[in-house]
Amino acid sequence: MRNDNLILFVETAQLGSFQKTAELNLMSQRAVSKRISALETEIGATLFDRQKNKINLTAAGKHFLTRATELLNTMRMTTYEVQQITQQAKEQFNVGYFSPFEGVLLRMALLDLPTTTNFMIEEAGIEHLISDVLLKKIDCAVIIDNPLFNAKIDQTDLESVTLVTDHMTLGLSPDLITDQTDSPADYLAKFPVIYYSSEESTYLEEVFKSSIGQLADTFNARRVNSYEQMQLLVGMGKAISFYPTELIKYMATPYDHITYLSLDGVTTAHSEFKLIYHHGNHQPLIKQIQRYFDTHQF
Q1: Partners of 54 in the beta sheet?
Q2: What CA–CA distance (Å, rounded) separates 87 from 89?
Q3: 171 C-beta neighbours (distance < 10 Å), count
């Protein structure tokens, strides 16, 4: 299966037009259509329902879009990792993070390290990160935990250090706020809750539910494939999500079109962001990351 055909398919699905994809890639519309048809023949399924001046993804196409996006992301990450492995540097520091929020914290700390440091950085699910740290594939990882959720870290050979404790907030489109008396529970009952995780996992949903007490009974959450998709759906009023109050300030833009509501009265609505590492790993840069957060307030 050709990588460039997968890219054309994803672009066409996102743009909703063979013509727009052709213009983007400086190709003819016929050439794009031919490549998509070849892909459909190869996998034995129709991906687009072709109508006059309009195309829509079929059920098979929607499923294939999810898998194709994941495959392309994996290929890009693998290419990056291989390139990183071949680089020669004075130090090699392998680190991981769970979501863009942990990525913000990690970026702050890494920018404070010596410029000669060679990094290998991975974004992965909680289970994947814990496994990689235990197997010493990476030196450390930043993950979200909750005091009420038992990640069983203490039962392993891992050490954990709390870097930041942040209060959880509810994010939703301001267009949904039609009644100022509505509470977070009202919104949770009315709209779907989504979250982003790079891998299939219910961990973040469980963290949400453990942090909001009785409100957990009012919703079920589903995973989306990217942080950008999550922000788009929330900003358009199609869903709502939970965010760490302070960390989102480092990521929010005026174009998100998202309002953040405090979960007042929910005393457990906070999460801890932790650094985990193997107790036998004496990489000095791990301690340097800890010192960074000891001396900086968030």
Answers
A1: 51
A2: 6
A3: 20
Q: Where are the alpha helices (DSSP H) in the chain?
A: 3-15, 18-24, 29-43, 59-86, 100-110, 126-134, 184-190, 203-211, 227-235, 284-294
Q: Answer yes or no: are the C-beta atoms of 122 and 138 closer than 8 Å.
A: yes
The structure's pTM equals 0.66
Closest CA to 151 of 95, 204, 217: 204
pLDDT attached to residue 268: 53
**Of 258, 264, 248, 240, nearest to 183 (Cα)?**
264
Cβ(272)–Cβ(146) below 8 Å:
yes
Q: Class for domain 3-82, per CATH?
A: mainly alpha
Summarize pLDDT for 216-247 with one digit per residue, the tens. 676 778 899 899 999 999 999 999 998 999 99
Write down the CATH number for the domain with range 165-271. Answer: 3.40.190.10
- CATH number given to 89-162+274-294: 3.40.190.10
Per-residue pLDDT reduced to its tens digit, 11-61: 999 999 999 999 999 999 999 999 999 999 999 999 999 988 889 999 999
Query: CA–CA separation, 256 vs 50, rounded Å?
Result: 32
Q: Please check whether residue 48 is in contact with residue 58, taking contact to mean a CB–CB distance below 8 angstroms.
A: yes
Using CA atoms, how far apart are residues 33 and 268, in angstroms rounded to an integer?
Answer: 53
Contact 271, 211 (CB under 8 A): yes
